Structures are given as C-alpha cells and as structure tokens.
Amino acid sequence: MRGSSVPSRVARALQDMIAERRLKPGDALPSQRELTTLLNASRPSVREGISMLETLGLIRVEQRKGLFVAASSGRTPLDFWTFEKGYDLREVYQFRASFEPAALFLAFAELRRSGLERLRAHAEALHTAAREGNAVAAAEQDTLFHDIIFDFCRNRLYQDMRRSLAKVMQDSQWVPMVIIDRVSDTAREHSAIVNAIEAGDQVAACKALEAHILAAARRCNLDLSLQTLPFQALA
C-alpha cells in the first residue's frame, strides 16, 4: 500500500494538534510559515495539507489573519465546496458517475488479477478511519482507493484526464466527509465494489461504483437519481 504523502502528513499533524490541544472553533493555529518549520515540510506541502483540512471542514483560512479551527455545525458539505476553477459540484458528480465506472470497466480484468488485495486493504483502512472518526485518514484512503482504479486502467487518455482533474475530483471525494458520521457509508460502498470485483461480476462492480458516486452526491444534498447514467441501464 502507498505511504502517506507529505501534504497528508501535514494534515494529520494539524488534526492531531487540534485534538491534543483541545482547540475549539475560532481558536488560532500556527501560521503557514511556522508550520513549515514545526513540521519540517515545504510551503507547497503545508498549503496542500491546509487545503485538505479546509475541504474537510476542520479549519478555515482568513486572508491576512491566519488559520483557525472551523465550526462545522449548521453547515452542509456543499458549503465547503470552493473549488477555484468554478466547476459546480453537481457537474463534477455527473462527470464522475460516468467517467469512473467506464475506467473500472476497462481496468476490471487486470485489477481483479493483480490489484484486488490493494483495493481491499484501502477499503478496510477506510472502515477503520470511519470507526475512529479520523477525517484525514478517511480522505487519504478514499483517494488511494479511487487512484488504484486508474492505475490499472491502461487507457492513457483516461489516466491523463484523471491527472489533469485530480484536484477537482479529489475535493469532490472529500467534501462529503465533512459529515464524519457518514464516512461509514462510504466505507460500505467501497466494500461493495471490492466484493463485486472479487466475484468476477464486471457490470455489478461498475454499477456499485456508480451507486457510490451518486450516494456521495446525495450526502451533499445533490440528487442525481433522475438521470439516465450508463451503468444504471444495464441489467
């Protein structure tokens, strides 16, 4: 299984700092400059780690003021969607619900043969993160799970599109995790995908992935169920 990225380690350290110091919403955190020294990380890695926590609803960034513990009560996942390129979150889920199952369809045979245990390991790690209420670990495992599908999809156009849209797709995976109690739903959905792959049912696996993305959209109060999507139409 892949190790944690530096931005993820930064995010974990900040999450731990909030818990260990028992910081409350509105409490200040060290500045980005201080964090680069404290965590022995580059400025870009610190910025990425902060962006991760901001998307997960754990901190807020105030220009010229600094970093603060965020208050998530009374807010919905959609409130944390601030992607700078201007994509509407509904558009992203619409795209993902067609794009990712198609990539899984292409990756299925090789993924089942050589990548199933990696996929299962990340699904199980997500269950653990959900039980512990660890938002950063959950977000990291969710990202790694979806990345593996594209690792085994040998169509370079799909892989290039995934890389070019990595930030927007990743953030759309993390936004629902603002509701930490619902991460267990995500974990169960991942397990359903793994089980279908293990059973050798290509269509069921693709439909399970599509259902997972539609469920993530619903957790953001976006109902895409009335759409006709490719794998919904398959028996």
Description:
The protein is mainly α. Helix 4 packs across helix 8. It has 2 domains: about 5-70, Winged helix-like DNA-binding domain superfamily/Winged helix DNA-binding domain (Arc Repressor Mutant, subunit A, Orthogonal Bundle); about 85-225, GntR ligand-binding domain-like (Four Helix Bundle (Hemerythrin (Met), subunit A), Up-down Bundle). The chain has helices at about 5-20, 30-40, 45-55, 90-130, 135-150, 155-165, 165-175, 185-200, 200-220; strands at about 30, 60, 65-70.
What is the gist of this entry?
With 235 residues, the chain is mainly α. The chain has nine helices and three strands.
Please give a handful of descriptors for the protein shown.
235 residues, mainly alpha, Four Helix Bundle (Hemerythrin (Met), subunit A), 2 domains, 9 helices, 3 strands
Using the 3D structure, state the CATH architecture of the largest domain: Up-down Bundle
H and E string:
HEHHEEHHHHHH
Q: Which fold name fills CATH's third level, the topology of the largest domain?
A: Four Helix Bundle (Hemerythrin (Met), subunit A)
Number of domains: 2
Strand count: 3
Largest sheet: 3 strands, antiparallel
Sequence of strands across the biggest β-sheet:
1-3-2
Share of helix among residues? 55-70%
Strand content: under 5%
Please give the radius of gyration in angstroms.
18 Å
Report, as a whole number of angstroms, the end-to-end distance: 34 Å
- Mean pLDDT reading: 90
Number of helices: 9
Poorly predicted runs are none
What's the CATH C level of the largest domain?
Mainly Alpha
Structural class: mainly alpha
